[in-house]
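Project standup — Tuesday

K.O.: blocked on the structure for the chain from last sprint. Re-posting the sequence here as requested.
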Amino acid sequence: CGDAIVFSCVMDIAFENAGVARDGSVTDAEANEEMRTNRFNDGRPFQTLLESILKQYQSDGRLRMKKVEPPTRIVRGRILYLENPFLDYIGCWSDRGGRLVTFEAKSTRESRLPLWSNGVTKKQIDVLRLWESAGSVAFVLWEYSGDVRLIRYSAIKEALVERKHLKLEDGVLVPRGEKWIMHDFLKVMEELWLPC
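H.V.: unblocked you, prediction finished:
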């Protein structure tokens, strides 16, 4: 499903969009400092839940994912968080021949997820589009009030035409799983993305 050249090109574009060279040096004068605007819900409980789900998937040999931390720079004793050239998680889907998977994790206290600001940013939407067009599995996992929804790029694209936010019905409800898998998003992936 993938090609090394396409992957390399997407990687170059992702780094370029973030203003960071492949060696990690800052290429953009603005340094693309990422400001957290959702200070009351930083997503840590959802991230902790995702980590336990991903450990179970990896233990079962079905999916291997890693959290991608945003690059940082120390300037005059202050830590600057630079814009991440990737989505929150990246890895490969063992059940689908190692197909690349990447997703952005979001958690909100409202039943809508803003697009372009405070929610899914323009850069994240661009990265979703780039990875999906290269043949990878790319999506947003959105947690709201204990439920999780998987949202494909196509739903985001449609929402951008009509409004500047996602509604719950734009995503596919992720069912409860077994063992440590509280939300079995892999089950939804299997339904949405057929084998290559």
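K.O.: great, moving the ticket to review. The first strand starts at residue 63 and ends at 67. The radius of gyration is 17 Å.
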